[in-house]
Amino acid sequence: MGLFFTRTLIFLASSALGLIVADLLLTGFTIEWSKWWGFVMCVLMLLIKREVREAAALKAAAKKR
Predict the structure, then answer these.
(1) What letter would DSSP give residue 27?
(2) DSSP three-state, residue 26
């Protein structure tokens, strides 16, 4: 269980950092910091997508055994 939380926290941090770097480097990509909840929702949606994809991959791998 500790590994799950550690991996989740690392992914959350890397997603947030990636969005911040994109905001700084890419023209046309902006984050409105006055609406911080949109940033949080985006990071959470990335996390949910990753977890669903990982669960599906683990299930498919278990079937092949």
Answers:
(1) T
(2) coil
